[in-house]
Write a structure and sequence with these properties.
The structure is a single chain. The N and C termini lie far apart (about 50 Å). This protein has three domains: about 170 residues, Rossmann fold; about 160 residues, Dihydrodipicolinate Reductase, domain 2 (2-Layer Sandwich); about 80 residues, Alpha-Beta Plaits (2-Layer Sandwich). Strands 7, 8, 9, 10, 11, 12, 13, 14, 15, 16 and 17 form an eleven-stranded mixed β-sheet that branches. It is of the alpha/beta class and about 425 residues long. The protein is elongated. Helix content is about 40%, strand content about 25%.
C-alpha cells in the first residue's frame, strides 16, 4: 500500500522528537498503521540546521505555505506554536483537504471551534493528543475509552513546571523565586514563565478536556484562572502539617446549574493519588458514572514524550484516512450537531472548602470577631489553628467546610477591613476527590 505523506511545520524540540521517533520505530509504526508514514517536506526557519538533522532526501523550505499547499502531502503536522500564523496555516491546510495533527493547545483553546467546524465541513481530521499532558493518552481515553460514561468531573495536574516548583518548595523548603529559578535552569520553565505559573497553560488544556468530557464548545474565555505566584513556602508547610499538599489543579465538574471550569492552587489530601504526583510529572483523574475514577499519569512535556503523542495521532489519521468522514471519531467526542449549550459557571457560583490564613494583632476577641464574620457569611469552620504569637502578631488558619465562593469573597473583604488585621488574607481552595 502506498505510504501516507507527511509535511512537518517546525523541527524544534517536539518536531525533532517526532522525526526521531518516526525514523527509529518506522517498522513498528507501519505495522500498526497498515502503511508507511513518510515525511516528505519540512518547513523551518533555519534550513541548514534542519538539513543536519534530517539529512538529504527530504525537501526543506522556510516557507510553511508551500507545505500546506503541497499536493503530495496528506497530513500536515503543526508544531510551530502560537495562535496567529499557526491558525492561518492550519485553516489553509484544511482548505486544501489535508488532515492536521497539532500539539498546539493555545491554538485550539482559542480558535478550536472555528478550526473543528472547518475540518468537519471539509471532511478532514484534526488530531491533538499532544496538546494536553504530553505523552499521556488522555484525549483518546476521554474521547473513545470512556464513551460509555456520563463523565462527572475531571481534575488534573496538567502543567509540569508548576508541579515541579511546588514539589521543590515542599521537599527542599525553597521559596517560589528559588524554585522557579531552578526550574528555568533545568529547562522546565521558559525565560518568561508567566503562562505556566499564571495558570494559562493549564487553563488552555482544561478547556479542551471539558469540551470532550461534557460535549460543550471550547470556551477558554469562561475559565477561572489563578496561578501559583502567591503561594508561599509558609502555606506549603502549614498544609503539610494539616495532612495536605498544594497542587495547581485544573478542575471541570458537571453540576445541575452548569459546568465548573477552573484552574487554581488547591489543597488535596496527602494520601490521595494527585497529591503524590511529584516533580514535573502530570496526572489526570477522570470520574465516570460507570467506571468510577480512572487515573492517567506520565510525562506531560519533553521531546519524545510529546512526540509519542504526535506519532500516535499520525497512526490514527493514517488508519482512518480513507474512512467515511461521518464514521470517524468526532473531534470533541460528541457529534457536532449534539454539542450542548450548557453554561460555564462563574467562579462566584462554585462551592469549595477553603484554607484561610491571616496575620492579626494578638489581642482578646480577635478570633471571635473573625469567626462571627465567617458565620454571618454562611461559612462553616471545620478547624482552626492559631500559631504562636511573635512581636504581638498572631497567625490564624481556618479550614472551612464547603462554601459559596461569593460568600467567601465577601467575608474576606470584610475581614481585611478590620483594624486588627496585619496582612491580607491568603485564601486557597481545598478539594477531596
Amino acid at each position: 500500500m502506498e505510504s501516507i505523506k507527511v509535511g512537518l511545520l517546525g523541527l524544534g524540540v517536539v518536531g525533532g522528537g517526532t522525526w526521531s521517533v518516526l525514523q527509529r520505530n518506522a517498522e513498528e509504526i507501519s505495522r500498526r498503521a497498515g502503511r508507511q508514514i513518510e515525511v516528505v517536506q519540512v518547513a523551518v526557519r533555519d534550513v541548514a540546521k534542519a538539513r543536519a538533522k534530517v539529512g538529504d532526501g527530504i525537501e526543506i523550505t522556510n516557507d510553511p505555505a508551500l507545505v500546506v499547499a503541497n499536493p503530495q502531502v496528506d497530513i500536515v503536522v503543526e508544531l510551530i506554536g502560537g495562535t496567529t500564523l499557526a491558525r492561518d496555516l492550519v485553516l489553509q491546510a484544511i482548505h486544501h483537504g489535508k488532515h492536521v495533527v497539532t500539539a498546539n493547545k493555545a491554538l485550539l483553546a482559542t480558535h478550536g471551534t472555528e478550526i473543528f467546524e472547518a475540518a468537519s465541513a471539509k471532511g478532514v481530521m484534526v488530531a491533538f493528543e499532544a496538546a494536553v499532558a504530553g505523552g499521556i493518552p488522555i484525549i483518546k481515553a476521554i474521547r473513545e475509552g470512556l464513551t460509555a460514561n456520563r463523565i462527572e468531573w475531571v481534575a488534573g495536574i496538567i502543567n509540569g513546571t508548576t508541579n515541579y516548583i511546588l514539589t521543590e518548595m515542599r521537599t527542599r523548603s525553597l521559596s517560589f523565586e528559588q524554585a522557579l529559578a531552578q526550574a528555568q535552569q533545568l529547562g522546565y520553565a521558559e525565560a518568561d514563565p508567566s503562562s505556566d505559573v499564571g495558570g494559562l497553560d493549564a487553563a488552555q488544556k482544561l478547556t479542551l478536556l471539558a469540551s470532550m468530557a461534557f460535549g460543550i464548545p471550547v470556551q477558554l474565555d469562561r475559565a477561572y484562572v489563578e496561578g501559583i505566584t502567591h503561594v508561599s513556602d509558609q502555606d506549603i508547610h502549614i498544609a503539610d502539617r494539616l495532612g495536605y499538599r498544594i497542587k495547581l489543579l485544573g478542575i471541570t465538574r458537571r453540576r445541575a446549574e452548569g459546568i465548573e471550569l477552573r484552574v487554581h492552587p488547591t489543597l488535596v489530601p496527602a494520601h490521595s493519588m494527585l497529591a503524590n504526583v511529584e516533580d514535573a510529572m502530570n496526572a489526570v483523574l477522570v470520574n465516570g458514572d460507570a467506571v468510577g475514577q480512572t487515573l492517567y499519569y506520565g510525562k506531560g512535556a519533553g521531546e519524545e514524550p510529546t512526540a509519542s503523542a504526535v506519532v500516535a495521532d499520525l497512526v490514527d489519521v493514517t488508519r482512518l484516512h480513507t474512512a467515511d468522514p461521518e464514521h470517524r471519531v468526532p473531534h470533541l467526542a460528541f457529534q457536532p450537531e449534539s454539542m450542548a449549550d450548557i453554561p460555564v459557571l462563574p467562579i462566584e457560583q462554585v462551592r469549595c472548602a477553603q484554607y484561610l490564613r491571616m496575620s492579626v494583632n494578638d489581642a482578646p476577641g480577635v478570633l471571635a470577631e473573625v469567626a462571627q464574620v465567617l458565620a454571618d457569611s454562611e461559612i462553616s469552620i471545620g478547624s482552626m489553628i492559631q500559631e504562636p504569637a511573635s512581636d504581638g502578631v498572631a497567625t490564624l488558619i481556618f479550614m472551612t467546610h464547603q462554601a459559596q465562593e461569593s460568600n467567601v469573597a465577601h467575608a474576606i473583604n470584610k475581614i481585611e477591613s478590620m483594624s486588627f488585621m496585619r496582612s491580607a488574607v491568603t485564601r486557597l481552595r481545598v478539594e477531596s476527590f
